[in-house]
Amino acid sequence: MSLEEELARAEAAVAAAELAVEESANAVAAAREAVASASTPQERLAATRMLARVTARHRTLESQLAAARAEAQAIRDRLDANPPISLGAIAGDTPIVLLPVRLETRFATTGGVTDLLVRVYPDDLHIDTHEPELTEDEARWGRSYWEQTWRGGASDEAERRAWTQIADAFTPQRAAWIVRALEPSNAGDRPGMPIDDGAPLPVAPAFPPLATRPAAQTRAPLTRVLPDFWIALGYDAGNTRVVTAVGASIRQPLPAGPQPDTREEPPEGVEAGVVDAGMKWLVNFDEALAAGMALRIRLPQAHAGGLARLLVIGVKASVSPASAAAELADLIDAQHYTRGLEVLQRGTPTNNTAVSRAGFGGDDIGHAGSFAVERGAPLSAAGDGSAGAGAGPGTFAPGRRRTAGRGAGARRQRRAMAIHDRVNSSTSGCAAS
User: Which segments of 28-160 are extended strands (E)?
Assistant: First the structure.
């Protein structure tokens, strides 16, 4: 069992012991009131004996609470001496990707004891809505795209027109996936000269076997790249850590939205709801606790008024670096073919101002820009100093067209990457770690 898991169990034991002491204190108060209100010697004797029993039990529970608190503090001390989540065990040359999350907090005070309730929500970057299987309509458009392209011969004009049509029918991102999924296996047989409409192609495109799905959405949005569990670190105004809390194991994969209901009408007697079982953690705190996406933190009495700073971090240490890299690459692929993918230049504005526009989106009249990105020459290659190449092995790997992310061909960060490599190598990896 890890130190984090030991601490989680110890803190649960402290919470249970505190509740037992609180209930016992109420029992002692009630017994004292019974002694004071006794009207006969017999009632007073019985009440006095009851007071003695509950007082003895209360003292025993107080001793157990003190022992539980001491055990939890000892584990916290061991965590202080050993970096949480075994970060120190990660090799300095292993890159760590930090994906953003959103935190929501509130205080809950019961019986003079204050808990900090923390909710953790994944950012859009975590969410995978990509469904590789094509609908029948998508498959029809994809085959038409390639047939039009082959009729255009070696010129790309026909392909540009076909791209505009399929990008209009779906989105440029989904169109890119449809085209990729149906890319003919006999590309060498593409005609070199244009073929008139209606005339047979010398060799027809050989489309790969295709898996289809019955609707545009058949599963809930989900994330597969969350850490094994969250660890919360709370600090006071002097930057001293005063709280360490560990959440439950995070459910993997984790739904992040509703499961589509493909039924025309719900069964008789069943109401159609917007919150299904998989996404209850999004709206119910206890469900979020069970899913590992919330923490209930018992605040020390001295800090019941709040913390100066709260950090919530996590590492997915249950998979190897190679497997983690593959999961990240799959996520980037999913983003590429749904929301879109772009490697931003340094200094890209995040908001619209009077003098500049935000870097999000942009006009792409006639889908010329997306055609150049998705169907043009690769924007980066290993070792060419581009942003795509600098993202790391496998992130924008050729063969899966991750080189197609907008901005992947940018060279403006070549100097920064060169400085990083020099500093890191000269410090034996300490700069990166």
Answer: 101-110, 113-122
Burial 9-46 (b: 16+ CB within 10 A, else e): ebbebbbebbebbbebeebbeebbebbeeeeeeeeeee
CA distance 13 to 11: 5
pTM equals 0.70
What is the greatest pairwise CA distance in the chain?
Answer: 115
DSSP for residue 107? E
* Per-residue pLDDT, 207: 96
What is the Cα–Cα distance from 128 to 415, expressed in whole angstroms?
A: 33
**pLDDT confidence of residue 264:** 52
> What is the chain's percent helix, strand, coil content, to nearest 5?
45, 10, 45
Residue 67 tokens read as: 């022992």
**Token output for 50:** 């009851």
DSSP letter for 184, please. -
Whether the upstream peptide bond of residue 253 has omega within 30° of 0, thus cis, is yes
Between 410 and 148, name the one with better pLDDT: 148
Distance (Å, whole) CA 316 – CA 419:
29
Is 80 exceeded by the pLDDT of residue 55?
yes
